[in-house]
Amino acid sequence: xxxxxxxxxxxxxxxxxxxxxxxxxxxxNSVQAMNIAVFSLCCYFAFALNWLVFIPSNMAxxxxxxxxxGSITYISMILLAVVLSPGLxxxxxxxxxxxxVWAVRLGxxxxxxxxxDGRDDRFDEIKVNPVRFFFAWTVQALWTxxxxxxxxxxxxxxxxxxxxxxGRIGILLWIVGFLIEVIADAxxxxxxxxxxxxxxxxxxxxxxxxxxxxxxxxxxxxxxxxLMALPIMQGWQHLALISPLFVVLLLTRLSGIPMLxxxxxxxxxxxxxxxxxxxxxxxxxxxxxxxx
Length: 292
Fold this sequence. Notes:
Blueprint: H1 2-27, E1 32-33, E2 36-37, H2 38-60, H3 66-84, H4 90-117, H5 130-156, H6 165-193, H7 213-229, H8 242-254, H9 257-268, H10 272-280
Antiparallel strand pairs: 1-2
Helix pairs in contact: 1-2, 1-5, 2-3, 2-5, 3-4, 3-5, 4-5, 4-6, 5-7, 5-8, 6-7, 7-8
């Protein structure tokens, strides 16, 4: 028990340190408010908001507002950056709209899902342990900071530039990624609602070309935002380019695909159809399934 607590404490310190590092790096060449870089203020706000919501959530031992708080954090950071940054150019206005649309859509989708499902089994063991639960909320704050870093650079940088070809490519990537994520989520939700599919796994629509098309969409849209940010980055602001790489790492190596695969193996590991699906379908990048 003491060893686990020590490990979580170390991980907590590292998580906060990474957030502070990004706040410092992105704050270079950022516009300021109250003599503080606006980029940095947005990062500190992300931690503060998640820690604040953790308090009643921990008291009630509920995860119902976890994902919703994540989306609200994105929305709040973007609005804070918009309000405190004078004179947004077209690039800034477009990226602000992009992130707000994405956050509202995903947040409402996840909130409705957990209300319908009643629980999120990721938190069954975590929410009863205050230290682990606090760590989960801190990780969420870091997730929002790292993921939105390029968008925040666009909104808070003291440099502006015309929206050139690479920016337009970024917009196109965002649109494609957003549509893939929305369609994939809608297809899976419709599949699960159909009583004929109870206890089964989805392998139709976009899910016939990728085992995780929604994750591919999310990676694609944040890559688009990074491309939009690249022309105006200066010095240490380039560290924000870790944003899409962080999303890839998070979804493919940490909390995304590995967790879902573990659950799927436990549920359908002996299912012949599932084994064929795993063997013939791309894990992430959508492509036609292998011929059997």
